[in-house]
Each structure stands twice: as structure tokens, then as C-alpha cells.
Amino acid sequence: MKVEQAFLNGKAFIPFLTCGYPDLETTEQMIYALARAGADLIQLGIPFSDPTAEGPVLQRASEEALRAGINTDGIFSLVKRVRAQVTTPLAFQTYANIVFSYGTDRFVGRMAELGVSAMILPDVPYEEKDEFDAICRKEGVSLIPLVAPTSGDRMAKIVRDAQGFIYVSPSMDADKMVGALRHLTSLPIVVDYGPGQFADLTTRADGVIVATIMEGVVEHGSTPDIVYDQARTMVAVMKGAGAQALVL
Q1: How many other CB atoms are there within 10 angstroms of residue 233's CB atom?
Q2: How many domains in the chain?
Q3: Cα 227 from Cα 210, distance rounded (Å)
Q4: Is the peptide bond before 149 cis (omega within 30 degrees of 0)?
Q5: Fewest Cβ atoms closer than 10 Å to its Cβ: which of 157, 185, 190, 228?
Q6: What's 109-145 look like in SS3?
């Protein structure tokens, strides 16, 4: 499934999961639950020792997954199993060192083979993206650009040749950024409001990234059944004609 298909059914609900927390078997069941609940795209975080783009709860999940021995090959095996049952678009979020250590060609090629259609690398600035971008384009994988309030005048350059969608980093000015981006790109724009922020679902954004579900798994031991119920509620609110806001 191409990542663009996530935006064909109204505003996209995009839950985030840290792979391997508390174990890969649970992650697999969470993916099935989210797909059944109507997720439009599932964002899979590959654990890293210094996950600077994630809050403290998700950092803890990443650290504990690594201590449990989770590795990239194990996550690719997970995706292979999932792809036998799930057609929902998938995206990886990880960091440059993970891709480098695996071998960029090999990593992206494996993504393409398994149907992971997008990659988000929060620690790779626009000016350093070319070596990743060329391989992604060759393999048909979208390298997703991140835009933040600090992007300033670089915003137009960042989105000019982008693929997939535009990722707006957590910010209180997210909706203003969406408005500015509308003048620069026709690609879908996705907002990460961050945990606990008041997300205006009437925003002009085309999708919302939700980390709250994963935080519930870490802090409260949410089971796949609970995750399904939470996701169904969020999807109903997001897709509902009268939806206005949701605390994520």
C-alpha cells in the first residue's frame, strides 16, 4: 500500500507504536488491533538509544525494547508476518544511525520488499537528506520531510520536492504552519500535536499522528483489546461530521 492511500478516506488517523515494547508479539497484536479499528496509516518506531524526537515516555519504551534485545532484523520479520494479514499503509520512524548500521541500500530495499511505504528520520535535516532520498526514490519509498516552527524561510525548500506527506512537528503554532504550507505544496499535511495537547480536528491538516495509545501501553499496560477500543473512539471522532476537538 502506498502512503498516499492513507488520505483517501478523510482526515487520516495515524497511531504511533514503538516496536518491541513490551515485546514483538504484543506489537504485532497492537498492529492488528489498530488496523481493525480503522487506522489509515500505522507509524512504527524502530528503537534507538538516543530517540531525541520522542517524549520521555516513548524514550523509555525505546530503551526498554533495546534492553530486551529488539533489533532491526526482528522488526523486519515482524512486518513480514503483519503484511500477510494487514494492508494498512505502514511507515517507519527511526534515526540515521539505525539505517547506516544496517546499510542504507539494504534497509530501504527491505522496506520496499515488505511494503513499508514511508520513512521518517527526525535527526536528518533537509541539507543532509540526499543520500537517503536517492535510495528511497529508487525503491519507491517516500522519505517524509519534517517541518517545524524553526524551519522559517527553509520551509519552501524543504517541501519543494517532497514525497508522501509533510510532517509538522509538535508545536502550539501547528495550525498556522498548516495554513502556510498550503501555499507551498499540494501534498497531504500531517500534524503531530504531541501528547496531552488539545488537537483541533477541524484543522486544515490532512492527518493527525497519535502517540497517546503507545503511551497508554507504557504507563498503564494497555492491552490490544484496550488499544482497539481507544482507536475506534478516536477514528469515530476524527471521521465524524461534527468532530471538533480531541485531547490526544
Answers
A1: 12
A2: 1
A3: 12
A4: no
A5: 157
A6: HHHHHHCEEEEECCCCCHHHCHHHHHHHHHHCCEEEC
Distance CA 146, CA 205 (A): 14
Domain of residue 201: give its range: 3-247
Q: What is the CATH number of the domain that holds 235?
A: 3.20.20.70
| Under 8 Å between Cβ of 177 and 164 | no
- Cα-Cα-Cα-Cα dihedral sign, residues 1, 18, 123, 69: negative
Cell numbers that stand for 187 in this block: 501534498
What cell does 14 get? 495515524
Q: What's the pLDDT at 199?
A: 52
**Separation of alpha carbons 15 and 44, rounded Å:** 9
Per-residue pLDDT, averaged over 149-159, amounts to 91
Residue position matching grid coordinates 491538516: 205
Q: HSE, CB side, 13 Å, CA atoms: give it for residue 229.
A: 5
Per-residue model confidence as pLDDT tens digits over 226-242: 999 989 988 888 877 44
* Cα 96–chain centre separation: 16
Band of residue 91 on the pLDDT scale cut at 50, 70, 90: very high
CA distances from 207 to 21, 56, 95, 236 (A): 25, 24, 22, 14
All three cell numbers of 125, joined, read 535535516
pLDDT at position 243 is: 46
